[in-house]
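Narrative of accomplishments. A recurring question from our advisory board has been how the design workflow behaves on a single, concrete structure rather than in aggregate. To address it, we present the structure tokens for one chain from the evaluation set, followed by the sequence designed for it. No filtering or post-editing was applied between the two.
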């Protein structure tokens, strides 16, 4: 199975932006370099399971959210979704912003 690191990176970037963290701030919290965070967000580096768990914890996400596009038993397959990739990206960003808003009101 091939993981889509570009999609994982996009999810990381969206979540980081929603928390208001810079790449440098997130890197410091994780104990990695800012360039490593940048590589993860661009999908040019592979993340270990430990790194994914650390990211999920720092960004208040679940690991399955980061891996959603890679999960075989995801609740929706691409054949069931009548939207373009661009439309799905916009919807995903909207949901991430909504989730951030809801969490900030707690």
């Amino acid at each position: 199975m091939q993981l889509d690191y570009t999609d994982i990176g996009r999810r990381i970037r969206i979540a980081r932006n929603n928390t208001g963290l810079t790449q440098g701030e997130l890197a410091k919290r994780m104990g990695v370099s800012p360039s490593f965070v940048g590589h993860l967000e661009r999908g040019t580096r592979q993340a270990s399971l430990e790194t994914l768990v650390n990211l999920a914890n720092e960004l208040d996400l679940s690991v399955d959210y980061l891996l959603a596009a890679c999960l075989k038993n995801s609740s929706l397959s691409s054949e069931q979704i009548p939207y373009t990739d661009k439309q799905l990206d916009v919807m995903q960003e909207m949901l991430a912003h909504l989730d951030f808003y809801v969490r900030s009101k707690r």
